[in-house]
Amino acid sequence: MKTSLLLLLALASLTHAEPPALPLTQAALQKIDPEIKPDHYDIASTDLNNDGTDDVLALMNGRSAYYGSGGATMFILKGTANGFESLGSIKVVTEPIYARKSVKNGFRDLLVSVRGGGATPGLAALAFDGKTYPASPGDVGAEVEDSDELLFAEPTPPFDQKETLQGITFQAFSPNNRSGNTLTVTPSGLELDNKPIKMDVPGIMTRIEVADINADGSPELYAYGFDGTSQTLLAWSANKKKSLSQITLPDLDATQSKGHRGGDEFAVVEGILARRFPIYPEDPAKTQPTGKTRQIQYKLHAGEATWRLKPDKVLEF
How much is the pTM? Predict the structure, then answer.
């Protein structure tokens, strides 16, 4: 239950973290430090001073120089008609982070988490002093209130799962970062090539399963993630137990995509890979699904350079 709650909170943060103007956010951060790059931080937006313009909080991640064992630096940027201007930064904070309804000197209070680096863990409430927010959290002891707005959710735990089939083992690991996330697949038991495969992935990883849906005596690995709206798929096949080749999934064609608005789910079922999703009305103004589900059943075929999943049947129920 705890893992499911963390997943929901993390996905809520993913969808909330879209900046109002990413180029303007990046431009403001580079005025502070030219070495800051777009993949060095996660973003949340909210109106801190109730002026009708969104402000931005940029929480640095492990790809930046502003991240350590005690936490990360969070830069606070005030939204203006011409972009963003700095309201200072807070060091060694971590998720979850909230904006409160209470206001000091025209700006809402912030509630940040503190842990690691020898600090006493807990929540610290920070007030604006008229020019900036405190440079460090200070004393902890605050508690979350129902009216607090979640800006950055508690991190999703890293994903680490191992599965074995037909003498081949697949170890899949992802740090499950909210931005710049990666998946590393390390095979063992292959005759020629057991080098790890590392790639960028959208969203977070949730599970893997192994199967042999084409019954050729060599297993496949199916790795599933979630990008905030739909389940995602990455897959590989062991070529006669010698090495791994990636499996490609075709885009939905015009017929298959009719009424598709996300919500995809994948699973291996009796020699096929099944993809199902709710069907929505053709009228974009209608936001509720029709109650019907479309399921596309794929079979695995060898291609010239990669393996391919090809639609075999399309069902609606």
Answer: 0.67
